[in-house]
Amino acid sequence: MSARANTLKEEGNKHFQNGDYKSAEVLIQQDPSNPKLFTNRAMTRIRLHSWDACIDDCLHSISLLSTNMKAYYYLAQAQLALHHPNEALSSALTAYDLCLNSGTWNPSTSHVSQLVLQAKKEKWEGKERERIRRRSDLLRELENGLAAMQKSELENWKVKWSEHMDIDREYGSGREGTIGAQEEKAEILDTSRRKLEELRSAFALSDPQNLQPREVPDYMIDNISFCVMHDPVVTKTGNSYERSTILEHLKRSPTDPLTREPLTVRDLRPNLALKQACAEFLEKNGWAVDY
User: Which residue has the higher pLDDT, 144 or 177?
Assistant: First the structure.
């Protein structure tokens, strides 16, 4: 990194730490050839909830440096915020692979792992919502009604606050100009969310066998493949993995994927209690094989 680029980066980071995100955006855009500066600006745009602009920065950073783990990590967060779990899962998995194959311990590995699981959960929940909607025409009709109501309220909100909006057209970040506008929008979204949850809960109680959401407990999920474990083993640090995936990982790197502590095949022990719990769960919930 050139001296000028490093100075811009440090000054931008200082603005970011002080919460002056707009100044940070302006500074760290001035070296278009440095992928790390675009990654840093993506981080500021996450704080500003400027999701589309964040995605643009991440994609540009990746085009300059295809192994930029942070760019994929921030990209996944923005894609999740825009309710694109399939794309977010792909980005998060790429970030996770880059962490595992970096050769050194990366403190972000556990955070990236949680992001992968979150994206996979949201992808699954989307499938579950569609399954439940297909089971009930009435539920589908009521959900569509709530969605239309929320859209109408947001349009009215936009008209009401249009004169007070502080839009930064140069960067396209679309920030609300007043605290009142932000709070009112948040209230609209929160009220819509609560109504939707109450509606789905009511339908689930009326037909639990078919309309109850299906979930997989986190402790049954392998931290490498992110699938339900069938033959879990536990490491000396207490982390459990599916036997086949941890053995494959150890061929590439003799370390624990999450802690990066030295790990060999001899350090693995069968996790019999977890294996039994997974087997009983899969016996009663065959759908979880496709999770």
Answer: 144
Which residue reads 């603005």 in tokens? Answer: 15
Neighbours of 218 (CB within 10 A): 10
The token pair that represents 16 in the structure block:
């970011």
- Give, in order, the Cα–Cα distances in Å from 192 to each of 121, 211, 233: 21, 20, 43
C-alpha to C-alpha distance for 147 and 71, rounded to whole angstroms: 32
Please state the separation of Cα 201 from the chain's center in Å: 25
Contact 253, 109 (CB under 8 A): no
Coil, strand or helix: which one is 131?
helix
Whether the predicted model's global pTM rises above the 0.90 cut? no
Residues 79-127 pLDDT 10s: 999 989 999 999 998 998 898 777 666 778 778 888 887 888 888 778 7
Q: Which phi and psi angles does 270 have, rounded to 5°?
A: -60, 135
The H or E element containing residue 109 is helix 109-135
Q: Look at residue 154 and tell me whether its pLDDT is greater than 70.
A: yes
Q: How far is CA 219 from CA 54, 115, 182, in A?
A: 32, 15, 37
Q: Is the pLDDT of residue 156 over 50?
A: yes
Backbone angles phi, psi at 269, to 5 degrees: -130, 145
Task: Please determine, for residue 253, whether its predicted confidence score (pLDDT) is greater than 60.
Answer: yes
Sheet holding 240-242, edge to edge: 240-242, 232-234, 269-270
Q: Are 258 and 113 in contact (CB under 8 A)?
A: yes
**Which residues have a Cβ under 8 Å from the Cβ of 88 and sit 6 or more positions away?**
75, 76, 77, 79, 80, 115, 119, 122
Task: Write the single-letter amino acid at 132.
Answer: I
Tens digits of per-residue pLDDT, 137-150? Answer: 777 788 889 889 99
Measured between alpha carbons, how far is residue 161 from residues 22, 152, 166, 167, 283 in Å?
A: 21, 14, 10, 12, 54
Q: Is 240 helix (H, G, I), strand (E, B) or coil?
A: strand
